[in-house]
C-alpha cells in the first residue's frame, strides 16, 4: 500500500522519540555519574570524574567485575555450545518430537526470573549444593540458553538442507559436515548468540539475586546500593558496566563488518 | 550392445505414513547408459532418486549396486553422487574449494587436489582463473558447471541429477543439455537424470522411464515411447496427441465411438466388439484435397491456427464437439480461413492402438 | 535420510534438554513439592498438607496477585498501543533505518534492567533530571513523580518494550503487501484493512508479544521495588518476603506455584497455538 510521505515522516518522528525515551534513563545515569555533589540533584552544578577514580580504586568493585565476568563468560560458552546443537534440533532436522522440543525450549523464557531463581535456590538446597557464583551460572543458563538457541535457530532456518546432504553424498561424515559446512554457515548466528549470552548474563539481576550465595555480581551490588539510599558510586559503576557493554557491542559490530567485507571482496562484491 | 546392469531395483516401495510414494518399482539401469526418469510433480521421481542416492531408505524392496545389496547403505558410504536441484554449492567456499571438497574428504593432499580441480575446470570449459572465485559470484550456467565438476571430482560410479536445469532460461538449458550429453559420452559414466520436462529427457537420454503415481509406466527409447505409448497417460504426456475411442466391427474393421471415422480398406488388429484407443500424432494428420484418399478420414471445421515458428498447429472442431490437433511444417502451411469446412485424413501405419484394461 | 535426521535431531536436542531438565524442570518440581509441605519446614520429608493454600486465601494474598496481573495487563495493552505504529513502520516503511532502530533497542537490553530503572529514579525523583530542570526553568516547586501505581505500570512498559516490539515487527512483516493493496483496491477503508487483514495475519506476532510482556510483567519485582518504594506490593514481593524475612519456604513455594501455574498455563496455551516454523521463517 502506498504510504503518504506524511505518514512516513510521522512514524519516523515517533520512532526517534521512542528511542529518546528509551535512552533517557541511561542519560540520567551518565550525567549523575559526573555530578560532584554527594547528594544528587539536577540541574548538576559542578562536574567531576572523581567517582570513577574512587570506583576503580575500590577492591570491592574490581572483585565484582571479576565475578560478573567469570559468570558471563561461562554462561556464554555453555549456552553457545548447547544452543548450537539445540538450534539444529529446533530448526534444521526433521524429527518426531521437534514441535514439543521447540515449545519446551521456549518455555523458560516465559517464566518470571525471580521465581526461577528461588526455585533454583530450593533445588540447590535439596541436592546439597551451596550457592556461589558457580551456581549463578546454572541459574543464568535457564533463561539465556533458550535465547541463544533461538538466535542461532533463526540463522539455521535460512540454511539449505541440501548443502549437508550434498556433503554427505560426497562421503563426508557427521563431524566433517559439521566442521566444513554447518558451523561456518551458522557462524554469524553463533557469534550473535555468544554476544547476547554474555551481555544478558553480565546485566542480569533477578536470576542472580537468590543463587549467588555469599558472592555478589555487579547488578546485585548495584541493587543493594540503590535500595539502601543514594551512593554516588552507583551511577559511576553503572556507567562503567554500560560502557563495557557498549564497547563489546561496537567491537563485535566492527568484527562482523570486517569479516563481511572480506568475504564480499573474496566473492567480488556480491553478498 | 549387451551391457551389464549396474543398478538394480527390486520391488522398491516407499511409504510416508499412509501415502505410498513409490509402489513396488523394479528397474535395471545399465552400465554407462543415460537414463532419464520423467514424470509430473508428485509422481515419485524425487523420492526415487533420493533412494538411489542413499538419502532415504525404502520401506520394502532391495537396491543392488553391481550385484551388492546397498538398500540401507547411507549416502556417504555409496560410490554415487548427486547433482541437486538447488545445486547445493557451498556458498562460503570458492569454486576451487567446492570442486576439491570430495577430494579433501578423501584425504588427498593440497597439490593433488588442485591438479584435479584444474583438470575438471578445463573439462567443463571454465577458465582456470575461476579457481579462486566465490561460487555466489558465478552466473547460473557457471554454477551448473561447478556443480558438475564437483560431482565428477568425487569420481562416482553413477551420477544422479535432480532436475538441475529447471531454474535456467530456455537457451541456457538447451546449451547445457547438449554439454551434458557430450559429457556423458566423454566420461562413459552412468547418468541417471530426473526431470518433469519431456523435452529435456528426449534431448539427452539413451532411455526414458515414465513415472506416474509412484509406478514406472513405461521404459524405452524416446522414439519407442513417443510412437508406441503403453497407455493414454504416456501418450498425452509425450506431447500433443489425438486419441479416438474405437470399437471393432469384425474382420479387422472398426468404427469411431466419439465421432464418425470414414475407414477405408485398411484394418486394425481389433476383435469384434473390442474397444481400444487409436492414437495419431498431429504431424501425421493431413488436410485432404477433394478426391484425395487416406486410410481414415473425418470431417471438421477449422477453429484456430497457432504459429509455432518452424511449425504451425491447427485446431479443428469435430462433429462430436471434440477438437483435433493438426501440425504442419511452416513451409507446408495449410491455407484456410476460420470456419472453413475441412476434410482430414491419416494412415493407420502412422497410428498406434492403445489397449487398456 | 529421515532415520538419520530422526537420530540427529534427538542427539542435537540432548544438551539443551539435559541442561533444562536439571535447571528448569527439576527446580519447578521442587517448588511444587514444597508447596504441599506444612509451613516453615526446610525439607521435603514431611506429610503433604494444603495449609499453605488455606493461608493464601485467609491472609488475602490474592490481592497482590490480582494487582500483579492487573498491572501486567495494563502494561501489555499500553505496550501494544505504543509499539504497533513503530512496529508497522519498522516492518513496512523504514527500510534500512529499521535496522538502526533494532540495534538501538537491542542495545538497551544489554544494560542491566536495574540500572535502567535506577536511571528512571534519577530522572523522576524530586530534584531528578526532569523535575529538577523544570524547577530551574520555571521556578515552580516540583514534586517527585515516583512511588505510585501508575509509575510502576510505566516502568513495566519501559522494561518490556523490546519484548512487545520485536514479535510485533515479525508478525506485521508476515502480512503480504499485495493483500493490503488488493483490499485497498477493492475499496476497503484503512480501518477495515487494519481490522480484517493486518490484525488477523499479524496475530502470531501479537500473541507472542502480548504473552511475553504479560508474563514477564506479572512476575516482575524490580519495578515495584525501585519505582514504587514500599508503596505497592506485588506478587513477586510477597514470594520473596515469604522466602527471606518469613523463612517460610512452603508458603513461598505455594505462592510461586500459583503464579507459575497462571503464567505457565498461559505460555503453554499460546505456544501450542503458534506455528513457530512459520513465524521464524522456515524456507520449505
Give a short synopsis of this structure.
The complex is a heterotrimer of chains A (271), B (357) and C (284). By secondary structure, chain B is of the alpha+beta class.
| CA-atom Rg of chain C in angstroms | 23 Å
The SS-based structural class of chain A is mainly alpha
Apparent shape of chain C: globular
The count of DSSP E runs of length 2 or more, i.e. the number of strands of chain C, is 0
Average pLDDT of chain C, rounded to a whole number, is 82
**Which class of secondary structure composition applies to the elements of chain C?**
mainly alpha
**Largest interface, by Cβ-Cβ below 8 angstroms: which chains and how many residues each?**
A-C, 102 and 107 residues
Largest sheet of chain A: none
The main β sheet of chain C shows up as: none
**CATH topology type of chain A:** MetI-like fold
Taking all Cα atoms into account, the compactness measure Rg of chain A is 23 Å
How many individual helices of chain C?
15
Tertiary shape of chain A: globular
* pLDDT averaged over residues of chain A: 84
Using brief descriptors, characterize the structure shown.
heterotrimer; A: 271 residues; 76% helix; globular; disordered C terminus; C: 284 residues; mainly alpha; MetI-like fold
Describe how the helices and strands are arranged.
The complex is a heterotrimer of chains A (271), B (357) and C (284).
Chain A: H1 5-33, H2 50-57, H3 59-92, H4 98-106, H5 113-126, H6 133-157, H7 161-169, H8 174-203, H9 206-209, H10 218-227, H11 233-266
Chain B: E1 5-16, E2 19-30, E3 34-38, H1 45-53, E4 60-65, E5 68-69, E6 80-83, H2 95-106, H3 110-123, H4 140-153, E7 158-162, H5 170-187, E8 190-195, H6 198-204, E9 207-212, E10 215-220, H7 222-227, H8 232-237, E11 242-250, E12 253-256, E13 262-263, E14 275-280, E15 286-287, E16 296-307, E17 311-317, E18 323-329, E19 341-346, E20 351-354
Chain C: H1 2-35, H2 51-58, H3 62-93, H4 96-109, H5 113-124, H6 129-138, H7 149-159, H8 161-173, H9 177-185, H10 190-201, H11 203-218, H12 222-228, H13 235-243, H14 249-273, H15 276-280
Helix pairs in contact in C: 1-14, 2-14, 3-4, 3-7, 3-8, 3-11, 5-12, 7-12, 8-11, 9-10, 11-14, 13-14
